[in-house]
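User: I'm new to structure prediction. If I give you an amino acid sequence, what do you actually give back? Let's try with this one:
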Amino acid sequence: RPDGSSAPGLTAPTAAAPQIVITPSDRSRDVALTSTVVVRSDAPLQSVTVTRGASKSQDTTAGVLAGQLSADGRSWTSTGGLFADTQYQVSAKTSTVNGISGTVDAAATFTTANPEKSFKVSWEPVAGQTVGIGTPVTLTFSAPVSDRAAVQRRLVVTTDPPVNGAWNWASDRVVRWRPQQYWKSGTRVHVEANLAGLDVGGKRFGVKDRAMDFVIGSAQISYVDAATHTMKVYRDGVLQRTLAVSLGKSSSPTMSGPHNVLGIAPTVIMDSATVGIPKGDPDYYYETVQWNVQFTSGGEYVHSAPWSVGAQGEDNVSHGCVNASPADAEWFYRFSRVGDIVDVRNTGRPPDTSQLGNEWSISWQRWTAGSALPPATETTGAPPAGAGMVGAAASPPPTTRS
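Assistant: Good question. You get back a string of structure tokens that encode the predicted 3D arrangement of the chain. For your 402 residues, that looks like this:
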């Protein structure tokens, strides 16, 4: 009407409330781990939160599922994987109703399936450890990996300060990450294996994500010389002690090369049958040995050898290990930590890079060639604040030499 009033019997149209659609739908059960959570609305979304409950069967705590909002703000899509046997709660809210101030809320709850076969990972080092400057991050998977690139895309290493590093596949079940050079003391390292929801084939699925943090300690490097029968032990470039030692004899020389310490143990039973010297052979031995620092997965240690004290500093008489006096071996055992460097020289035996403990004998060119993805896709940088969940280590049972 000319005066602006409404015509008799007519009312202004009412704005329709926007609709929010959540997938998976409310009360869904046995949702596939490969599913994506999607929230769509015909109005811009103000917020979307997807909360993950704890799961006893998967030994996981509560958390939040990551996602990304579309450019127009009207849809949200999850970017993280779904944990197995877990309840998720989705809540969403619009920011406006057809241009009119106000909000609309929506919610849904769903539960994921628990696959018969799971795909999990264990790793070394373990969460919270302070380790040596030669420590590689070693991940061992519960089943062989056929699509290494797909798995590697789910792996993240971030460091503070940033370093240049890369993954290298040792086998279809073991992948390792190390920097190009030895770690700098004080570096903080954050590792993620975001395997939740990953289909690796054979009806096997990643059932959860894992993360952990560790720290690089002081620079501890020991130089073992088969020609001088000595081991010079340094911390941060300062000589701490020179040990008289005996290395492998000519028939069983110690492996040369820079080795990273794999583990330490106060006592180890060394059985020559594990390295091809069976019972009944004149060289057979079965000994309980003290103060052991292992530096190859083939069974080479620095350890106490009271039986060879007379040869230590004079001759090489062992079966491949580095023999030291009981006092020196105990001192070195207490000095050492996982990831320290034991650099063996002048033995004539090249490093066997198929064994763990020899990661630093692999050239950087060869190391990066063992990655399933181009180096440009590797991730480094500062670790996220507050990151870290308990990790668990796994390693093959060692063979032993004395």
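You can read the tokens as a compact description of the fold. Here is one thing that stands out. Residues 116-402 form a domain with the L,D-transpeptidase catalytic domain-like fold (CATH 2.40.440.10).
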